[in-house]
Predict the 3D structure of the following.
Amino acid sequence: MHTFWQRVNAIFFYALSVLGFLALLCAGTTYFHTAHPDVQLGLDRASLRKIMGAGHEQATLRLSIDADLSTVFNWNVKQLFVFITAEYVTKQNKLNQVVVWDHIVTGKEYARIHSSSIVNKYSLTDQGYGLRGNDITLVLHWNTIPITGLLTTTGFRQSVHTFTLEDQYS
Amino acid sequence: MEMFTDMYYQLKEMRPRTLAHQVLNLCMIVCSALMIWKSLMVLTESESPVVVVLSGSMEPAFHRGDILFLHMGYSPFRAGDIVVFKVADRDIPIVHRVIKVHEKPSGVVDILTKGDNNSVDDRGLYAAGQSWINKEHIIGRARGYLPYIGMVTIIMNDYPLLKYCLVGLMGLFVLTSKE
């Protein structure tokens, strides 16, 4: 009944189920962790120009970020993918959401982001001519990559920065 | 080797009725695996509920050999979502992050994606002349993550012989197992 291979098999699957249970426990207990993030977004300058390409209007932003996300980290967080979106409504679209900046935080010690005069990393381009004179909201989000478990994204809407783009091209 | 000769004699000496029972047992296992997979497809609304990461384009979040659990869901697509999508002329689905969303009043949504580890967006990966992907290109959204386990699949795909040996061995074990 109990040959060598049966024993190997039993040990292997027992180890696998223990590992699975521990992983589940590790991921499940994060439910009791609460984060107290602190975010301040600002805009130093914004300019608008007309382009010919996938869109027709492109804005260049100069941003400032002061965020402390160290409390978002817990025992099951591998990294945070932090990004800022510019959100606006146009006649053409009921929602436009464009990532203008992103940053990977790989540890609690790097979770305090304090930068000013960041130029947008990805172009803020509208599909049509919807940027001129429009209200833009900047929102900071983070996508939590666990060591194992659920992937979640949080948009920090308690502290956003809203501004109006100028009505002319520069 | 002794193990295999044992198995061989065991199979040889089996009465036809017992053999038929064991073969049915094997069929049951194959069928239930298929049923679980198909039910997962229904539950997750995704044609491929579990995918293995094959490239390093999402590093350091996902490495080659990590497993992602997908779920489609009804909530609208938003920037930051990690989606798995297929474009024309490419067989292998791509796992990348949504960086631009333009949602029309009709509900049609134009999406642009990018790999975290890539320096440019995915327009170069899309079909010629395609600037955006839409809901119909998307297989699912990554919701769960399990590291390393997918390496088994990658190794088995790289060495098909190993795959056949393992499957054959498991079949033999089931056929010769005693209740």
Notes: Strands of chain B lie at 50-52, 67-71, 82-85, 94-103, 109-114, 138-146. The CA atoms of residues 39 and 45 of chain B lie 10 Å apart. DSSP finds four helices and six strands in chain B.
